[in-house]
Amino acid sequence: MKMLICGVGTLGGNLVEHLARTGLDALTVLDHDKVQPRNLANQPYFQHQLAKSKVAALAETVFRIRGQQIETVHKRLHEGNARGLVKGYELVVDCFDNHQARHDLQQACRQARVDLVHMGLSLDYGEVIWDEHYRVPPDVARDPCAEPLARRLALQAVLLFEKARAGRENLCFTAGDLVVTRI
After folding, report:
1. What is the pTM of this model?
2. In the CATH hierarchy, which top-level class contains the domain 3-177?
3. 3-state secondary structure the chain
4. Where are the beta strands (DSSP E) in 81-161?
5. Pairwise CA distance, residues 70 & 57, whole Å
6. Which residues share a beta bridge with 27?
7. Residue 9: Cβ-neighbour burial (10 angstroms; 0-12, 13-18, 19+)
8. 41-82: per-residue pLDDT in tens?
9. What is the pLDDT of residues 158-177, one digit of tens each?
10. Helix pair 10-21, 150-167: axis angle to 10 deg
11. Is 69 left (phi over 0), alpha (psi -120 to 50) or beta?
12. How confident is the model at residue 179 (pLDDT cuts 50, 70, 90)?
């Protein structure tokens, strides 16, 4: 399956690392950001990759994991280029962290008739929702991906993605869904 992951921060970066480890080969990543020191806690980047584009750094990491080349697009997605960027993919995954990029991606995928699934996190909640059931949320003042436990939530969302993709389901979780029982 030819897949495009849009936004490779906490959600998208961890999703790409997971997909690479499971053997997905036809993968393209899109993001305009560069690796910053604050990204190292929750995203699959390393100290030596600071100031490198996130897509190039992630491609390097995936190559080190499996010897696999992934396609990279180091661009900001916007209304003017979105439709051309999503054309030709079987599935696009929205891991953006802002309203405008999510909206522009949604409109482009709808116009191009490309399947789109949205992934999102808040401070204690995660979701994976197919586009026909998705409403683009407003921007939030506090970035949940900058929180100390964001990677744990992102990895839960990655597991939900696999289940949602397999059954074309809409799924969500709260941090409290992880129940630990003393045995």
Report:
1. 0.95
2. alpha beta
3. CCEEEECCCHHHHHHHHHHHHCCCCCEEEEECCECCHHHCCCCCCCHHHCCCEHHHHHHHHHHHHHCCCCEEEECCCCCCCHHHHHCCCCEEEECCCCHHHHHHHHHHHHHHCCEEEEEEECCCEEEEEEHHHCCCCCCCCCCHHHCCCHHHHHHHHHHHHHHHHHHCCCEEEEHHHCCCCCC
4. 91-94, 115-121, 125-130
5. 11
6. 3
7. buried
8. 999 999 999 999 999 999 999 999 999 999 999 999 999 999
9. 999 999 999 999 999 888 77
10. 60
11. beta
12. low
**Res. 25 pLDDT band, cuts 50 70 90:** confident
| Tens of pLDDT, residues 74-124 | 999 999 999 999 999 999 999 999 999 999 999 999 999 999 999 999 888
| Sign, CA torsion 165/171/176/177 | negative
Q: Which tokens go with 92?
A: 């696009």
113 secondary structure, DSSP code: T
82: its two tokens: 């979105």
How far is the C-alpha of 122 from the C-alpha of 37, rounded, in Å?
21
Residue 132 amino acid letter = E
Selected residue with higher pLDDT from 10 and 142: 10
User: Could you tell me the pLDDT band of residue 182, with boundaries at 50, 70 and 90?
Assistant: confident
What span, in angstroms and rounded, lies between the C-alpha atoms of 96 and 143?
12
